[in-house]
What does this fold into?
Amino acid sequence: MAKNTVTINRAPVLTLWASVVAERLGYNRKEALTLGKAVAGLTAQSKGRRLGIYKPSPSRGKRPDGQSRGEEFWVELCGRGIPAVDTHEGVRAVVKDKPVDPDSVERYLETKFGESLPDVRAAMTELAKSIKPSDLAERAFRLYEEFRPDIPAGKRGWSRTGSTQGSPRTP
It folds into this structure.
């Protein structure tokens, strides 16, 4: 395996990338980690429904006027609307009606990336910093598609690891 090759599932790559993008857009690291985890989860759910792996869940908490319930608000990140709340610790993405714990997201990334996490995070951060925030907000998911791990299409690729080489770069 080449020195700069990481073999990994797409979900942790998207989690890390979306969190790096969120930081570049002004969220602190802990806020960004929760938003990144939510982006990856919503993307996986969407793909799983498209492949017939998951059934659509009933709408939860949406009012007829399209607004969210309570003090929840929406953060746009990587082309997705992320439900979030403002807690005493800062903004937190909401998954299944609970704020995401940023420490659990960091542990997840450490487990999935292992010793490669600092290098991958640094490469993603360098890419994010090379793009104006307004442009990054628009292009973030398309950039991810350029460097995400290669896996087989359709159900054959579900939950499979793939490899990605080198550093993410501006296409």
In short: Residues 7-53+68-148 form one domain. The radius of gyration is 16 Å.
